[in-house]
Structure formats: C-alpha cells, structure tokens
Amino acid sequence: MKKRGYEFSFAWLFSIFIGAAVLFFAIYFATQLTGTKRTESETFAGKEIGILLNPIETNLEEAKANVLTVRDETRIYNDCSLRGSFGLQDLSVSIRSGIGQEWLPSPGGRSSFKNKYIFSNGVVEGNSNFFLLSKPFNFPFKVADLIVLWGDKDVFCFVRPFDDVEEEINSLGLVGKGVIFSGGVDECPVGSKVVCFPGASGGCDIEIESGLNKKIYYLDGESEKSVSYTESLGDDKYALLYAAIFSSPEVYECQIERLMRRTALLAELYLDKSQFLEPKGCGSVLVAFDLNRLSARTDSVSSLKSSLFSQTDILDVVENLEDKNDDLVSQCKLF
Amino acid sequence: MTTLFRSVSYSKGQMKIQQMAFVLVGLMIFFGVAALFYFTIFSSGINEQAALLREREAQELVKRLAGSPEFIFSSGSDCSACVDFDKAIVLKESSEYQNFWGLNYLMIEKVYPSGEGECTRSNYPDCKTITLVSKTGELSTRTAFVALARWDEGLGYFRYELGRIHVSV
Question: Can the peptide bond before residue A161 be classed as cis, meaning omega within 30 degrees of 0?
Fold first, then answer.
C-alpha cells in the first residue's frame, strides 16, 4: 500500500528560517531608521529655533515679544553651561510622535550658542505655541538681550503687579498668552503659577520682594529657593525680574554668571576704547577708573552668582559709571 | 547500480543547498548595495539641510550684528543700524571674541568714503577693512549695509560713514 505524505525537506526548513531572519532584520532596521529620522528632525528643529531667536533680539527697543508656533507638541530643553569665557547656551528639542514612542528617551542634538541668554524652566513644553519676551539688560551699558521663554502649557497669574509691569505686559500683547493679572491669590485659576508681587501673600508659588533687598522666592518646589535681582538702569527696569519669574532658579543663576562674565569683557572693551580715544579728545579718566573697577568686580564674582546684586558696592560702581558717562556732554560718551 | 543511485541522490541535495547559498549571497549583496545607495542619499540630504541652516543663520546674524553690545553705537544719536567703528578697531585685538559668534568670517568694510588696506591703530581711520575673524577656505558670505560711527577729532563730534558687514558661518 502506498503511503501518501509530504516530505518536509531540509530545503523547506532552511527557506523558512532564512525568510524569518530576513523579515526580522528588515523590521529591525526600519524601526532603527525611524528613530534616527526623528532625532534628525528634532536636531534640525532645535537649530532652527536658535536661529529664529536672532530677529527677536532688541536693538534700541525696550522690549520685544513674539510667538513661536510649532506643528506638534514640542519640548524645548534649556541647558546653561559655564564652559569657556562666555559660557554656553544649549538648546535641544523633542517632538511628540503619534507612532511608536511618544517621546524619545533623549532629545535631539544640542545647538550651542555663546551669545544667547534664554531664561526659562529646564524643560518648556508647548502644544503649539511658545511665547518669547526679549529685554535688553543694561549694566550700565547694554550687556545682552535676555530672552524669556515659556510655553502655552504654563499660565502665570500675576497678583497685584507693579503698574509698570502691568502696562508693559499689556502693551506687548502678552495678556492671555500665558500671563494673567489678578487682584488676589484666590482669583488665580487652578493649576496656574501664582506670582505674588509686594502686597500679596498666601498661596504663592513665587514671591517677589522689592525695596533695598530685591529677591524672588520660589515656593513651589520641594525646598524654598531664592535668587536676587536688580533693576536695570535706564527706562527699562525689570529685565531681570521677568527673567527670574519665568525661569527656574538654576537656569537663572547660571545665566546671571554668564552675563557677568560678558559684562567684565565689555567693561574691558570700553576701557580700551576710552584709552584709544582719550588722546583724540574723547573719553574720561574718571569713566576709565570706574570701568576698571566694574571689570575687576564682575570678573571675580563667579562664585557669588545673583547674590552679587545684594552687594551695594557693585551697584554703586554701576550707578557711578552711568552718571559719569552721562556727564560727558561736551566730550563724547563712551556708551 | 545501488551505489550509483545513492551518489546521484546525495549530489542532488548538495546542489540544492549550494543553490540556496548562492541565492542568499546574491540577496545579501543586493541588500548591501541598496543600503549603500540609501545612506549616500540620506547623508547628502543631511548635508543639504545643514548647509541650509548655516545659510539662514548667517542671514539672520548679519541683520542683527549691529545691535550686538560689542558693535552697538549708543554714544551719540539713536541709530539702530550704526556700528561703533572705534569699538571695532579695539575689538580686533581681543582674542576672547574669536569664536564668540560662531562665525568662520567676520569683516567690517568702510564703503564710503573708501580707504585702503586693513585697519590697524596706526592707519586708523584711513583704512578700508577691519577683519575680526579671518576667513578660512572658500566660504559664501552674507553682507548687510550699516552706518559706521566714529569719533572725529577735527570735527569734535561723531562722523557717520557708509559701511558693510560681511559674515560667513
């Protein structure tokens, strides 16, 4: 009797095995490539954001506000480092994806800038918009533009703000763009960050102390932290105040140190300019003397960070410098 | 006869295995070549994107450089597109700023009234260019017109002249 059967030969086994292996590797490399492509696009986005921050910087304006719109939910990572003479502003981006992992374990490649100072939380998240406020920081000459950044997921409730602050926020059109005003802590929406100006208290996430000792207290973390600020000279006073409100204390302190380093170098630059122009009838020995003091003082404060604003000697130097420069009416001003 | 039949069956199986092996080798070579083509195109896409980003960065930077604290002219009248030429000549000697803007080339040129040669302290202001970051290699440059402000000893006030900033990233 003939027995009918199918011979499952070695060739069949081999083919199935090889087919499965090829399929497996194809799927594996496809997923790897998708991850690489995502990292590539996130790196591109990070660099683009850095470039887009250029037009936001001020020239002679007091302030500038802008909105950065993104297609997908995005996280911007703000890393401040103190490497080198000027420190570094590192930016990286993570974009939410509907396929595979929502967020990649690490953001895209870093874009580094020496001439940017971004004040924000370490990670800023936005569904579709990021809000930017650019303010010049004068100490007493222009040191840099401070770029304050927050996302549309953050809401800051300013309780009893200064009149100047309210007027400025209104004129820049930032009300409703993550910033609201209220007369009391109870009026602030749930989930918002309550920023209490002097005169408001109780239930605050951030408390502002003005007067002789200008400080900001962060009460929403595990432990209370504080930073010092100073009012910029000139028409625009509150650059550092905004910077401190919208950023984390760690980022704020790091950026302050970077700013002071740049102040020291700019003071030296103005001092060289003064010495270069003095034989030509421009500049002043008195201004040069204070520039020297400012350069020496800001060069040596790297370990003090924002607490240097609590020291009256450096603020006196800055104020004297501005007064002496303003007095150079018949001769040329240095700045 | 039986021995002959056995050797024919044995070589048939071997032939099939060898055929399979050659097919697999061919497949691997094919996938390898395809992957090579893909990565070549992929990486040239990245290079293009990087070049595009550099161009845009240079374009934006050149527009804003006059407002940078190292160049801004705030001694005299309000002038948003003015570069302090006196600061620039002093800045030229500072090694700290060599890599500050992340530029491969940065030069300020006096267009009118024109001068000759690279500026130094001895021939300033009767010179043409102040090179702050020297050019390395063949680079495409972005330029923007600015006003150059400097103290004029004879005039006893600031003189404004036409200039250009050249940058390359």
Answer: no
A265 touches chain B (CB under 8 A): yes
Q: Is the CA virtual torsion B96, A79, A74, A226 positive or negative? A: negative
Question: What pLDDT score was predicted for residue A299?
Answer: 77
Cα separations in angstroms, A330 against A32, A42, A141, A283: 69, 54, 20, 11
Report pLDDT for A231. Answer: 83
Q: Please give the C-alpha separations between residue A34 and each of A23, A24, A38, A44, in angstroms, as whole numbers.
A: 17, 16, 6, 15
> Which backbone phi and psi does A190 adopt, to 5 degrees?
-65, 135
Backbone angles phi, psi at A144, to 5 degrees: -170, 170
Instruction: Report cis status (omega within 30 of 0) of the bond before A140.
Output: yes
- The tens digit of pLDDT for each residue in A58-84 reads 555 667 788 888 888 999 999 999 988
Task: Please give the model's pTM, rounded to 2 decimal places.
Answer: 0.82
Whether the CB-CB separation of A281 and B153 falls below 8 Å is answered with yes
Partners of A262 on chain B (C-beta within 8 Å) are 69
What pairs with residue B109 in β-bridges?
B129, B164
Q: What is the pLDDT of residue B18?
A: 83
CB atoms within 10 A of CB A2: 4
Option in A11, A280, A334 nearest B75 (CB): A334
DSSP A34-93: HHHHHHHHHHHHHHHHHHHTTTTS-SS-S-EEEEEE-SS-EEEEEEEE--TTT-EEEEEE
Q: What is the ipTM of this complex?
A: 0.78
**Chain segment A102-134, per-residue pLDDT in tens:** 787 777 778 888 989 999 999 999 999 999 998
Please name the residue that has the structure tokens 């003189």.
B159
CA distance A67 to chain B (A): 17
Residue B21's pLDDT band (cuts 50, 70, 90): confident
Given A59, A144, A277, which is nearest B151 (Cβ)? A277
Q: How many CB atoms lie within 10 A of CB B126?
A: 12
Give residue A2's pLDDT band: very low, low, confident or very high (50, 70, 90): low
Sign of CA dihedral B46, B52, B57, B60: negative
Please report, as a single letter, which amino acid is at residue B15. Answer: M
- Residue B5's CB: how many other CB atoms inside 10 A? 9
Report the residue count for chain A: 335
What is the C-alpha radius of gyration for chain B, rounded to an integer number of angstroms? 33
CB neighbourhood size of A308 (10 A): 21
Of A23, A282, A295, A327, which to mutate for an interface test with B (greatest number of B Cβ within 10 Å)? A282
More confident residue, B50 or A334: A334
| Residue B70: its H or E element | none
Q: Do A115 and B60 touch (CB under 8 A)?
A: no
**A300 vs B169: CA distance, rounded Å:** 33
